[in-house]
Amino acid sequence: MIKFVKIVRLNKGRKEKLDDKIVEERNINLYLNDKLIERIIYSPPFKEELVFGYLFLKGYINDKDDLKRVVFKDEDTGYCTDCHAEVERISDNSLLEKQFSINSSKLFALMKELLSKSIVFKQTGGTHISGLSDGQKLISFFEDVSRQSTIFKLAGDAILADKLSEAVILFTSGRISETAVQYAKRLGVMAVVSRSAPTDFAIDMAKDADIMLIGFLRGSRFNIYSTSKNLKII
């Protein structure tokens, strides 16, 4: 996920040559039933979680068993460039409505824990991180060059490990977009929490989907942009 490149740094008028750490960016051409449906930008590894999560969040599958076949093809470099998947059936995987309450101090603790996992960001400044929580602990987290791909990987991991029903809150380090809220709805979470800002479309969608939307969670404060009848902050 990290590679070294040679750069020239200008510091107080002086030039110096050195090796710098940057995050790797790769692409997977995803074929479904022999048709190219997407070119996904991501950072290796976790290509299985990426693909399964993408197919779930986009509505192509509801369960890991909905895929009849998944084949990854690599370049000579060892990085995956193509994935061929076949859908066998779409199962019914309706999520049950949950009721939950959480202390605000727990939100701060979980966000702090998530950000502490941003190992690549601390070295490169070039990644995003997202995590799923059951309201008490992080059940999974992924760091990636693409904000969307962090959520794809979360969804894929939840499906492959059969823990989708545990997910209550989606945490993310970056801006909350309308797409992120769409994915949150598909995941069945009750809240999306970020240390950054939401967009107006994200707020509107969260209200329509009955998802609590929290932004600028940092220090000792946060903003609530949308509430949920199923989630209470105490």
Walkthrough of the structure:
The chain has 234 residues and is α/β, with parallel strands linked by helices. It has a domain at 100-233: Cytidine Deaminase, domain 2. Helices cover 27% and strands 39% of the residues. It contains six helices and 14 strands. The protein has helices at residues 47-57, 104-116, 119-124, 147-160, 178-187, 200-209; strands spanning 2-11, 14-23, 26-32, 35-42, 67-74, 80-87, 100-102, 128-133, 138-144, 169-172, 191-194, 212-218, 221-226, 231-233. Strands 9-8-10-11-12-13 form a six-stranded mixed beta sheet, with helices on both faces. It has a four-stranded mixed beta sheet with strand order 4-3-6-5, covered by helices on one side. A two-stranded antiparallel ribbon has the order 1-2. α5 runs parallel beside α6. The longest helix is centred in the middle third of the chain and has 14 residues, at 147-160. It is flat. The N and C termini lie far apart (39 Å).
Mean pLDDT level = 91
Separation of the first and last Cα atoms:
39 Å
Largest sheet: 6 strands, mixed
Name the structural class.
alpha/beta
> Strand order of the main beta sheet, please?
9-8-10-11-12-13
| Proportion of strand residues | 35-45%
Q: Label the CATH architecture of the domain at 100-233.
A: 3-Layer(aba) Sandwich
The CATH topology of the domain at 100-233 is given as Cytidine Deaminase, domain 2
H/E topology pattern: EEEEHEEEHHEEHEHEHEEE
The name of the CATH superfamily of the domain at 100-233 reads: Cytidine Deaminase, domain 2
Number of strands: 14
Proportion in helices: 25-40%
